[in-house]
Design a protein that fits this description.
The complex is a heterodimer of chains A (362) and B (338). With 362 residues, chain A is mainly alpha-helical. Chain A has 16 helices and seven strands. The two termini of chain A are 17 Å apart. With 338 residues, chain B is mainly alpha-helical. The longest helix of chain B has 29 residues. The chains are: A mainly alpha (362), B mainly alpha (338). Chains A and B meet through helix 7, helix 13, helix 15 and helix 16 of A and helix 6, helix 12 and helix 14 of B.
C-alpha cells in the first residue's frame, strides 16, 4: 500500500475514515435533490433553504426541507441509538423496537384517556404519569428482551421476535381495538414546536447528548464494545457480560419508549397498527449504513445517527421525486444492497485482485 | 451425540403433544360449534397451505444458520403478478411457471449475496423484503381480484374440491357431508413430503445440516459451503413461490398489504417445531406441527367469536416464549453434560 503514490494514499486514508460511508451516502442524496430541483426549474439550492414561517397555530416556525428531514428523522435517530448499543453488545438486532414503540404509545394514551375511551380532550391522569407509564413499559420490554438474550442465551432475533409479534397486539388489547385520540395541547407538545424549533429535534438532541456523555465520561461504551468483541474474554477480564448485554437491551427499550412518545404525540393518538411500522428495519439499516458491523464489537454512534438522517433524507427525496409511499421500499432495497455489497469483504478482495492483475499487466 | 439426538426428539414430541392438547381443548370447549368435525382440521390445512410451503423453505434456510424474512413480501408480489398477469389475459399455466421462475431467480440472487459475498442473511433478506413489497406497489397499487371471467382455469383450480374418503358426518338435514380439501393442500402436503425426504436422505439435504452445524468443518470435509448456502436460499424462495400460488388460490386477489408478517409466522412455526436459528438442528415435520399449532390457535379464537383479534398473536408469541425457554434449558443441560 505504501508504495502507491501520494494521492492514492490519502484516498485510502479517507476510505478508512469510519464516517466515510454514511457521509458519502448523505452527499449523494443531496446531489440528487439539487439535480432534481435544477431539472424542474426551481432554485437548485432550495433543498438547503431554511426560513421562518408564520403559522396560525404555533407562531413563527422554522421551515425547510432540511428541517423537515431532521424533524421526521427523529424517531429513527432515537431508535438508532439503542439499536447501535444492542448490535454492538450482542452481535444481534432488536427487531421488536417498532412494536414496543407502538405498545408504549398505546399504554400511554390508554392511561391519559382512561380505558375504553376512544377520544378525549381532557387528561384522565397528569401528563407526567402517562409519560412515566410509557417509559416504564419500554424499560420492562427492554428488560424482557435483555433477560432472554443475556441470561437464557437465546439468539437476539428469536428473543425479540416474541415482542415483535406480541407487543403490537397487546397495545391493541389495551386500547380495546380502538385508535385512542388524546387531543390535548400539553400532550401534543412533544410532536409540535418549542419556539420556532420542532420539539422532536430537541428531544433527539437531548438523547444524543446524554448518551454520548455517558459513553464518554464512563467506561460503559468501552465495556459494551469489549463484550461485543468477545463476551467470554470480557468475563474473564472481570466484566459482567450478562449485565452489560442486559443493560444494552434495556436502554434500547427506553429509547423505543421515547420514540413512541414522539410518534404518538405527533398524531395526538395511539394508532397501534401503524405507529413504528417497519421502523425497526429503518433503525437496523441506519446502524448498518453508519458503518457499524452487524457482527457486534466496535461501534460508532455518530455514524448510526448520520445513517438515520440519511435514510429519512432518502425517503423524503423519493417522495419529492413523486415516488409513492408503497413504492419507496424498492429504491431503499437497491440502496441497501449496493451499500452492503461495497462493504462486503469478498467483494473488496475481488476488487483488490482486479487492481493487482491490472498492475501486473502494466 | 446420542444425547443430542434424544433432546431434539423430546422437543418434537412436546410440539406434537402440545398440538394434540390444544386441539383436544378446542374440541371440548367448542364441540357444539362444530370444532370436532374433521372438516375443521382440514380447514386449518386449507387456510395454511401457503404457510406450510413457506415454512418448509424457511426450515431449510434456518438449517444452514441463516434466515429469510423476504418470504411474506415475495408472496404478496407473486399474488399481485398472478392477478395482474391474468387480468391482462395471460393463461394460468404460463403465469404459474413465470412465478416459479421468478422465485428461483430471486432466491439465487439472495443466495449469491449470502453465500458468496458473505453478507448477513438478515440484511440481504430485509432488502429482499423491501424490494418485493415495493415491487408489488410498482406493479399495481390497487387490489386486483381474479374472478371467473378473468381466468376460468385458475378459478376452477381454486374452487376444486378434493374429497377425503373418510371422516365425513351426517348433518342435521340427514345429508352426508364429505370432508374435502382444496388443491393447495395437496400441493402443500406434497412439498412437505418431498422436502422431508430431501432433507433426510439426499446428499444436498445432509449437507445443509453439515453447513449449519459448523461451516468450517463442512468446508474441511470438502463441501462447497458457498454453493450449498446459495442453493438453500434458492430452495426457500422457490418453495415460497409455490406457497404464493397456494396463497393466491385462497385469496384470489393481489394487494400491496397481503401476507404482511407471514415471515414471522413461518419463523415462529419453525422455532416452535424445534428448528434452531443457530443452524444444524430441525426438521420439517416439527415445522409442520408448528404451523398446525398456529392454525389451531387462530381457529379457536375465530370459533369463540368474542375474543379480540389480537389474541392469536399474543398466544403464539407466548408459545414461542415457552418453546425457546425449553430449548435454552435443553441447550444448558447439553452444555453441562459435555
Amino acid at each position: 500500500m505504501n508504495s502507491k503514490n501520494g494521492t492514492k494514499f490519502s484516498w485510502e486514508k479517507i476510505k478508512q475514515w469510519p464516517l466515510f460511508l454514511p457521509v458519502v451516502a448523505l452527499i449523494l442524496v443531496m446531489a440528487v435533490n439539487i439535480i432534481h430541483d435544477a431539472a424542474v426549474g426551481t432554485n437548485p439550492l432550495s433543498f438547503f433553504m431554511i426560513s421562518l414561517r408564520q403559522t396560525t397555530t404555533s407562531g413563527s416556525i422554522l421551515y425547510g426541507r432540511i428541517v423537515d428531514i431532521i424533524n421526521r428523522g427523529s424517531e429513527i435517530a432515537i431508535l438508532a441509538i439503542g439499536m447501535t448499543l444492542v448490535v454492538s453488545a450482542s452481535a444481534g438486532t432488536d427487531i421488536s423496537v417498532g412494536s414496543v414503540m407502538s405498545l408504549c404509545a398505546s399504554f400511554m394514551c390508554m392511561m391519559l384517556a382512561g380505558y375504553g375511551v376512544s377520544s378525549t380532550t381532557t387528561l384522565a391522569v397528569p401528563l407526567v404519569i402517562g409519560l412515566l407509564a410509557a417509559i416504564v413499559m419500554g424499560l420492562v420490554c427492554g428488560a424482557f428482551n435483555g433477560t432472554l438474550v443475556a441470561h437464557l442465551h437465546i439468539q437476539p432475533m428469536v428473543a425479540t421476535l416474541i415482542l415483535y409479534s406480541a407487543a403490537r397486539a397487546i397495545g391493541l388489547l389495551l386500547c380495546n381495538d380502538l385508535i385512542v385520540y388524546v387531543r390535548n395541547p400539553s400532550f401534543a407538545y412533544f410532536g409540535a414546536f418549542t419556539g420556532p424549533i420542532p420539539t422532536p429535534i430537541i428531544i433527539t438532541a437531548v438523547c444524543i447528548i446524554v448518551i454520548s456523555l455517558i459513553l464518554k465520561k464512563t467506561a460503559l461504551g468501552m465495556y459494551i464494545q469489549s463484550v461485543g468483541i468477545n463476551a467470554k474474554a470480557s468475563r474473564i477480564a472481570g466484566l459482567n457480560s450478562k449485565l452489560l448485554i442486559f443493560l444494552a437491551y434495556t436502554l434500547c427499550g427506553l429509547f423505543a419508549a421515547i420514540s413512541g412518545i414522539v410518534a404518538s404525540s405527533r398524531i395526538t393518538s395511539a394508532d397501534s397498527n401503524n405507529i413504528g411500522l417497519y421502523l425497526e428495519m429503518d433503525a437496523i439499516l441506519s446502524v448498518a449504513l453508519g458503518g457499524n458491523s452487524l457482527g457486534g464489537g466496535k461501534f460508532n454512534l455518530a455514524g448510526s445517527i448520520i445513517g438515520a438522517y440519511t435514510i429519512q433524507a432518502i425517503t423524503t427525496t423519493l417522495y419529492a421525486l413523486g415516488v409513492s409511499t408503497n413504492q419507496a421500499p424498492v429504491f431503499k432495497a437497491i440502496i441497501v444492497i449496493i451499500i452492503v455489497v461495497i462493504e462486503a469483504p469478498p467483494f473488496k478482495a475481488f476488487l483488490r485482485r482486479q487492481a493487482a492483475a491490472k498492475g501486473v499487466k502494466a | 451425540m446420542k444425547k443430542k439426538f434424544n433432546s431434539n426428539t423430546v422437543l418434537l414430541f412436546i410440539t406434537i403433544a402440545l398440538f394434540v392438547v390444544l386441539y383436544a381443548g378446542g374440541c371440548i370447549a367448542y364441540g357444539s360449534k362444530g370444532f370436532t368435525h374433521f372438516q375443521t382440521f382440514l380447514n386449518i390445512l386449507i387456510t395454511n397451505a401457503g404457510l406450510i410451503c413457506v415454512t418448509c423453505g424457511m426450515t431449510a434456510v434456518m438449517l444452514t444458520g441463516g434466515i429469510d424474512i423476504s418470504v411474506g413480501a415475495l408472496i404478496a408480489m407473486d399474488c399481485m403478478l398472478l392477478a395482474v398477469g391474468m387480468s391482462k389475459g395471460f393463461g394460468a399455466v404460463p403465469m404459474v411457471l413465470v412465478i416459479l421462475l421468478i422465485g428461483a431467480v430471486f432466491g439465487a440472487f439472495q443466495g449469491f449475496l449470502v453465500g458468496y459475498l458473505e453478507i448477513q442473511p438478515f440484511i440481504v433478506s430485509m432488502a429482499g423484503m423491501f424490494f418485493c413489497r415495493g415491487m408489488t406497489a410498482v406493479i399495481c397499487t390497487d387490489q386486483v381480484s381474479i374472478t371467473q371471467e378473468i381466468n376460468p382455469t385458475f378459478y376452477a383450480w381454486a374452487n376444486a374440491k378434493v374429497i377425503v374418503p373418510f371422516g365425513g358426518y351426517i348433518n342435521n338435514k340427514g345429508k352426508y357431508m364429505a370432508p374435502y380439501v382444496r388443491p393447495g393442500v395437496v400441493i402443500a402436503i406434497l412439498v412437505l413430503i418431498i422436502t422431508f425426504i430431501m432433507l433426510r436422505y439426499t446428499k444436498f439435504g445432509r449437507s445443509l445440516y453439515a453447513v449449519g452445524g459448523s461451516a468450517q468443518s463442512a468446508a474441511m470435509m470438502g463441501l462447497n459451503v458457498k454453493l450449498i448456502k446459495m442453493k438453500a436460499y434458492m430452495l426457500s424462495s422457490f418453495l415460497c413461490s409455490i406457497g404464493g400460488i397456494c396463497y393466491c388460490l385462497n385469496t384470489m386477489a393481489g394487494s400491496v398489504s397481503q401476507a404482511t408478517g407471514l415471515e414471522m409466522d413461518a419463523i415462529s412455526s419453525a422455532v416452535i417445531g424445534g428448528t434452531l436459528l443457530t443452524g444444524g438442528v430441525g426438521n420439517v415435520i416439527g415445522s409442520f406441527f408448528g404451523v398446525l399449532i398456529n392454525g389451531t390457535i387462530s381457529s379457536i379464537v375465530k370459533t369463540n367469536g368474542k375474543l379480540a383479534s389480537s389474541w392469536p398473536n399474543i398466544l403464539t408469541a407466548a408459545l414461542l416464549f415457552v418453546f425457546i425457554v425449553i430449548q435454552s434449558i435443553f441447550a444448558a443441560i447439553r452444555e453441562r453434560s459435555k
